[in-house]
Design goal:
There is one protein chain. Helices cover 17% and strands 38% of the residues. The protein has 160 residues and is α+β, with helices and mostly antiparallel strands. The protein has one domain: 2-Layer Sandwich (Alpha-Beta Plaits). It has an eight-stranded antiparallel sheet. It is globular and about 50 Å long. This is Antibiotic biosynthesis monooxygenase family protein. InterPro entries: ABM_dom (IPR007138), Dimeric_a/b-barrel (IPR011008), Heme-degrading_MO (IPR050404).
């Protein structure tokens, strides 16, 4: 199954809204998501869905954790997510998650949707978050392995 992500300006989204795209904004920027077939275009990125829970459209606050991964690091990176505990799904305010493998680029996206921004912030200070990230920064953490991440990851957020 695939997911298509469009990035652009908020004023450019009118045509997308009527064609099955779920549109989110932040300031003057916009992100649109479509889990059905989409025509390729300059602003459309294509991903393979590795794991999914919940309905995207039910969320109001989206967090895109964009993680560049080298070709050599893909197998290890994906295995970490395939074996995840899934604790985030039990958190209050959680709506949906998509683990997305890039088709063309090297940047994976961990997309979570929440009822609101407060729910996401509360998760970040929860025991479930600490458990999910307990190996980060340690010798067991994937972030300490050489040749996995070619550049830093970054987070973007959008609201409905």
């Amino acid at each position: 199954m695939k997911l298509y992500k469009w990035l652009g300006k908020d004023h450019e989204t009118d045509a997308l809204k009527g064609n099955g795209w779920f549109v989110l904004t932040n300031d003057d920027a916009a992100a649109a998501i479509n889990e059905h077939e989409a025509t390729s275009g300059d602003q459309i990125e294509e991903y393979e869905i590795l794991d999914q829970k919940g309905l995207l459209e039910a969320g109001s606050f989206a967090v895109f954790n964009n993680i560049p991964v080298t070709e050599d690091g893909r197998e290890l990176f994906e295995s970490r997510f395939q074996n995840r505990a899934g604790l985030v799904e039990k958190e209050p305010g959680f709506v949906a998650i998509r683990i997305l493998r890039p088709i063309v680029s090297d940047t994976y996206v961990i997309l979570t949707l929440w009822e609101d921004e407060a729910s996401f912030i509360n998760w970040q200070s929860s025991q479930a978050y600490s458990h999910a990230h307990k190996k980060r920064g340690t010798s067991e953490g994937i972030d300490k392995r050489p040749n996995i991440f070619p550049r830093p990851s970054y987070v973007t957020t959008y609201s409905k």
